[in-house]
Amino acid sequence: MATTRSKAERFDASYRSLPVYWPVRWRLLWIARSDRRAGLPIGLSAETTPALRDLVARRDDACEHERTRYYAHVRPIDVRLAEIDTELVALKRTLAEKAEAAVRAAVPPSEEELVRRKAGERDLPPELVRQRRVLEHQRIADAAREAELDAQRRLDATLAEEAELAARRQNRADVTRSRALRLVEYADRLAALYRRALIRRHPQRDALVSSWRSDLAGPPAWVLADDIIPSHRAPGAAA
Question: Looking at the domain assignment, is residue 1 inside a domain?
Fold first, then answer.
């Protein structure tokens, strides 16, 4: 299950805030000036204030756009990670088989095996026959050990690829979340600008100051979650 953290914990202060350009500032000031003539917001709520409601809608649309870009970027990564899950099952099985074969091949030959003669060895001295059997056994053991090492190398390479892809995926998630948090912080600053302008000369200023619930609705849940796409999968945890 994905956990959540506060915006302050998620937002990197070194990540430059979006600038509020003068056209945007003047637009909000003009809207606030017009809204002062309309009286108090219905229910003294931010949700019934058109300007703040519009800010939330624009913010959420922009955040969703960032998440859509994230999905498009990580889709090939997720496809490859799914393939790796399947490959790891086979690679681990192969490694286990090669390891067992290497253990069997490493068992020293019996005396009977050492003195066994093959075709064409009838007239050879016993010492030479024994030497040949020892060399044959060593070649078989070396080949089995090399096969085990090769299986281990292929497994290690696949695990390394999996870890690298998972890191790329997480990095992209962090970038997406940082961009979304920057959009959230930008919307909060625009809302604060509008609120100050509205309250400054509002004919019912005291009522706004004391009773207006002007905080914007919280950002989309995924923005503050540990995982944009919650996953219980761990690197190397193939079924």
Answer: no
Say if CB 38 and CB 204 are below 8 A apart.
Answer: no
- Split into its structural domains, the chain has a count of 1
Q: Which two tokens stand for residue 140?
A: 């078989």
Is 239 among the domain residues? Answer: no
Structure tokens at 118: 């093959």
Cα–Cα distance list, 73 to 120, 213, 226 (Å): 66, 39, 18
CB 10 within 8 A of CB 224: yes
For the stretch 169-186, pLDDT in tens is 999 999 999 999 999 999
In a domain, 232, yes or no: no
Q: Return the number of other C-beta atoms located less than 10 Å from residue 199's C-beta.
A: 17
**Contact call for residues 226 and 4 (beta carbons, < 8 A):** yes
Structural domain includes residue 145: yes
- For the stretch 88-116, pLDDT in tens is 999 999 999 999 999 999 998 888 877 78
